[in-house]
Every structure is written in structure tokens, then in C-alpha cells.
Amino acid sequence: RFWEFQDILYRDYNDATSLDSGELVRSAREAGVPNLKKFDRCWKSRRHKDLVMQDIREGTQLGIQGTPTFILGLYDRESGTVSGELLSGAVSEEKFSQVI
Q1: Angle, to 10 degrees, between the axis of helix 36-45 and the axis of helix 21-31?
Q2: Could you tell me the pLDDT band of residue 35, with boundaries at 50, 70 and 90?
Q3: Are residues 78 and 43 part of one domain?
Q4: C-alpha dihedral over 50, 56, 58, 62, to 10 degrees?
Q5: Of 19, 43, 44, 39, whose CA–CA distance to 29 is shortest?
Q6: By the 8 A CB rule, do 96 and 68 touch?
Q7: How many domains does the chain have?
């Protein structure tokens, strides 16, 4: 149900950082998530918050400002640098081909 849930979030919310638990559960229900109580407990536990926040910080340091963003090249985690090109937004197949 991941993809269905993701599609609903992108369709309905411009700023996912302001979602509350009720909105997430409603979206999960619409996506067909089978165990909403387990989903809600997982969300409220914040078990994965640090990992998600680290990903957001790394993306921000790389200049990523939205989704989708593609990194075509090499990413060095130690230095936090990319050797290659960042492509953001709706990118044409032609542009991908040029970069590849």
C-alpha cells in the first residue's frame, strides 16, 4: 500500500510537514492500509524520526528543494558532495539521456 499512500499524500497535501495524525490515518485508510491502529502507533512512536531528519538534512545540504530529485553521478557520504548532476522536477527523457 506504500505507493497508494504516497500518491494520496502528494495529491492532497502541499506541505507534508504540517500533517497531523488524523490526516495521516485518513490517508492510510483511503490507501487501503489494513491495520490502521498499528499504522497510527508506528507514526506516534516516532521510531524513524531521526533517520528521516538526517535524510532531510543531507538533501538540503546537497541543494535538494523538492521531489522528485535525481542524483546522477556519485554521492560521497563522508564529504556530503555529489560528483555529477542533480535533476529536479518533471525531467524529460531527453534530459536524462543527455546526462547519462
Answers
A1: 140
A2: very high
A3: no
A4: 180
A5: 39
A6: no
A7: 2
Same domain, 42 and 75: no
Contact 84, 72 (CB under 8 A): yes
pTM of the model as a whole: 0.61
Instruction: Note whether 40 and 46 are within 8 A (CB).
Output: no
Q: What is the amino acid identity at position 95?
A: K
Q: Which residues have C-beta within 8 Å of that of residue 65, sequence separation ≥ 6?
A: 88
Q: How far is CA 11 from CA 8, 16, 69, 84, in A?
A: 5, 11, 18, 31
Domain range for 81 is 61-99
